[in-house]
Amino acid sequence: METIHLKLNKKLIQVLRSFFKSDQFELLDIRKDCYTRKYYRVSYNSKSYFLVEYFKENDSAIKQFKKISFFLASAGLIVPKIYFLDYKKAVMIIEDFGNIRAKDYILSVTDNEVEAFYKTSIDVLMHLQSVKLPKFLETSTNELLLNQLDLFADYYLPLVNKELIPSDSLASFKDIWQKLLSIRPLLDYTIVHRDYHSENIMILD
Q1: Is residue 100 exposed (0-12), middle (13-18) or buried (19+ Cβ within 10 Å)?
Q2: Which parts of 6-164 fold into alpha helices (H)?
Q3: What's the count of helices (H) and strands (E) in the chain, helices before strands?
Q4: pLDDT tens for residues 28-65?
């Protein structure tokens, strides 16, 4: 086990020993996320967890992550449980959902199963938009939403179209959305999930 411990700093080893009440854990792999967090997959007693180390400057983002996680769970959605969180040490331990991402899953199953997956994914979004909005969420501006649409136009459309999108078509696309967003104040507010895509949706065993 000591060879595993050498890959972790003293602070993280102490956190794991305290959490598991044992030193019989194993470091399986390490992942980075946008250079602001490190994810250490740790196995203990035939179960795996993610030990997350983040920059202290990201305290506010982690606090928001915790609020959103509790909110989504209270809304009946399946999200990773937060087992341990220490703001002073800038570390937390969360549930590990495994390795099967939606983007890989849909390439390995039948057309009917793919259709069922997308139906369920849309049902989840519809359910999320039906729940009462928590007060801690900030209101998205039209500018922010249009920036998100730019990602769709800049990356997704060229990928599926295989050709350069004409500039006048892109202009029309953005114009349509600007008109739709102009009536947004007249509509009920709902939740916008800006990270709901096949890289982040996990398939559980």
Answers
A1: middle
A2: 10-20, 59-74, 102-105, 111-128, 142-151, 157-161
A3: 8, 5
A4: 877 766 668 889 999 999 999 999 999 888 899 999 99
